[in-house]
Amino acid sequence: xxxxxxxxxxxxxxxxxxxxxxxxxxxxxxxxxxxxxxxxxxxxxxxxxxxxxxxxxxxxxxxxxxxxxxxxxxxxxxxxxxxxxxxxxxxxxxxxxxxxxxxxxxxxxxxxxxxxxxxxxxxxxxxxxxxxxxxxxxxxxxxxxxxxxxxxxxxxxxxxxxxxxxxxxxxxxxxxxxxxxxxx
Length: 184
Fold this sequence. Notes:
Number of strands: 6
Shape: elongated
Strand order of the largest sheet: 3-4-6-5
Low-confidence stretches: none
Mean pLDDT: 84
Helix content: 40-55%
Order of helices and strands: HEEHEHEHEEHH
Largest sheet: 4 strands, mixed
Distance between the termini: 96 Å
Strand content: 15-25%
């Protein structure tokens, strides 16, 4: 359609002539409200940014002679980070004479990698960097997948709370039976 005819049509219907595909031959235009078009494109861009996940590298620092309970606590943090879809950089800091025994740090990193292998994989193998030994673990799930999963779980909890408003949020409290009064 000629440009003059299209502009005339746009005025007749009190709309704007908006070019939607400038690179096409011939260029593609639509009759629409330009303000509404700008608003919808801004909303699409915002939604795309919201769903976009930037990779975060979390760091966990350990010592070669770590206590078993401390190891379990640190491992729990690594598990949480991997479940959230973040990469984890594990640093083992050597002090004094510990520097002459890098195999202790290597064994500790291998043990940690084996403990979390169902959630993540070794992205970069352990390597000595001065006084530290570093290893990077990457998650099996992408950040966007982890975010979507967390969102679904949260919505399910909200739906459950709406369906049963009197019920306690603590699942352990729901499983314990109420105490019966003692007979006298």
